[in-house]
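Field reference: sequence -> structure
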Amino acid sequence: MKADWIAVDWGTSNLRAWAMGPDGVIAEGGSENGMGRLARDQFEAALLEVISPWLGTGETPVLACGMVGARQGWFEATYRAVPCAPVEPGDLTAVATQDKRIRVSIVPGLQQPNPADVMRGEETQIAGALALMPGFDGVFCLPGTHSKWAHVSAGEVVSFQTYMTGEMFALLSTQSVLRHGMAEGGWDEAAFDQGVDDAFSRPEKIAARLFTLRAEGLLNGLSAAAARARLSGLLIGSELAAAKPYWLGQRVVLVGAEALATSYARALAAQGVTATRLDATACSLSGLATARGLLRKAAQ
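Structure field:
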């Protein structure tokens, strides 16, 4: 199997790659060799371990996005300042490789000086979402470890804001005093809804509402599933309250994994917002394909 080109989404924890043919994906693979596990001189070998079966004798273009372009990654791809298009062919960063069968380019992230903010990987998903929804003007919400809200107009990212909601959930549910009352599995939609409502209506009381989860578990028998769901609701509700200037009166598109996007859609619906949903992987592939198309067009 010989790929026309290879798409790579390389995050902190994982590497995912797709062999691309004339009609789309023809093979896929990955590993747990994320950016956080590799020294700079180990990236090429980690990539070849996954994609070697798709290479022929000639040169195969490889387009990568994500933390592979971070300062601690394979090669730093300098941030581009907003407002700008999410992906531009002239700003892709070329990476020198020892193996001449591959020509690697990295999509740079975006930066915003004030308030200071950065993104890596999400810009590619936004480019892909715009390709899937031509002419879209509005707001993208990309929930995850570090959720992003991005205002897009006329094909450009105008501004964006990051919230550490997913990371706070992970830390609070596994490393704080709240961990004693949390379940690994199980979910309670009513408890989630209550958390969203509590946080959205009184976001200044979020710290107190968090400890209430521990107290209710000790005194009132709050179940572990309900505690976990309400914690998620409190954090997402707090995020929505802070991000209100982004979504109020705007078209909102959620780009993320199904379970998390479902929670955000439910929380937004409680505020009267019906969000469109797109799959994160589909948007990443669409964005990398957009970058590939722009690169080929620029070379002609």
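Note: The CA atoms of residues 43 and 252 lie 36 Å apart.
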